Amino acid sequence: xxxxPTTLPGTNAEVKMWAHEHEIEPAALQQLRNIAALPWxxxxxxxxxxxxxKGATVGSVIAMSQAVAPAAVxxxxxxxxxxxxxxxxxxxxxxxxxxxxxxxxxxxxVGFAGHQHPVDPTSLGMPRNEFRAEGWGRFWxxxxxxxxxxQDQAKKAHQQMGSLGGGNHFIEVCxxxxxxxxxxLHSGSRGIGNLLAQxxxxxxxxxxxxxxxxxxxxxxxxxxxxxxxxxxxxxxxAQDYALRNRAVMMALVQRVVGAHFEARGxxxxxxxxxxxxxxxxxxxxxxxxxxxxxxxxAIRAGAGDLGLIPGSMGTGSFVVRGxxxxxxxxxxSHGAGRRMSRNQARKRFTEADLVAQTAGVECRKDAGxxxxxxxxxxxxxxxxxxxxxxxxxxxxxxxxLCVKG
Length: 405
Known about the structure:
This protein is α+β, with helices and mostly antiparallel strands. It has nine helices and 17 strands. The chain is globular and about 65 Å long.
């Protein structure tokens, strides 16, 4: 029987956790207490991948009444996952996947980079995916209505559409339990989403109703105010940007993978793409109360919802199906979660450790990604086991190739 959820004692709003208190770093526990102390918070739910974040904890689901805290969404607005099953089988893959990784890296900019010339989604058959061609014009036209502080970023936002970013973002080729090959990726709203988040967090900190809260980084906007309206407008645009960014990237990777195997006499068919945000806001109702739910490092796991829970470069990922547990605000973890900071990982591990821990995976194995070493993350199997009442496993994905920024 699952031992979760547990309850964090001594908080104003109820904090239910799918993790043991002693397993969570003290600074993250304090963050959770600070969040629960905000007068607008109805409840907090803590996922098993919980760890310290800026202002709000990563792996937290926060239900607020008539308010929202930008820090409870995070600076990478709309960050999330996408995956699609292919017609390829494990036995179809060549022994050496390095040429395929090089081809993907040539098609999708990583790190801070963007495309030299913005991608034309219609050239990728995007109407076949989530977006119709005419919708792109309306989407970009809305840029002019965003916060004035980011208006000089239009060119960069266009160029970064369809790019990966760095940190824990990735593109992977994986095999599932049945030997089918999947393509999966993790990315968000790139530089424009970060700048929008930072701008609104700065605005929120200056509002007088946030005087006296435990942590100014948790400053909120209140419903019915111009500041809230402006944030919700920009937030929804950035969430859309992130969704479109993953769709464009997936189309680019599909084109590369398709060409790579068609040249070997293996035409590739593609299944339906699974998409899920894990840094976002949604209007939902629990116990008859309408709330704004922020998921920061958490996915929606409503009954039947398909989701993706990745591990790290060497540990694979899971495709899951939500069980609709209202106790967790219909949520689940967004990944394994870090068990040490990037600086700690760089001090503790070497390139040789990275080579050992990513054995059998075609990926970068240099100093630039040591902070993403599997040893810096929590055990994925334990994280999945802790939320057996939140999701059921559809299949496990074993990492074969990983592109990192």
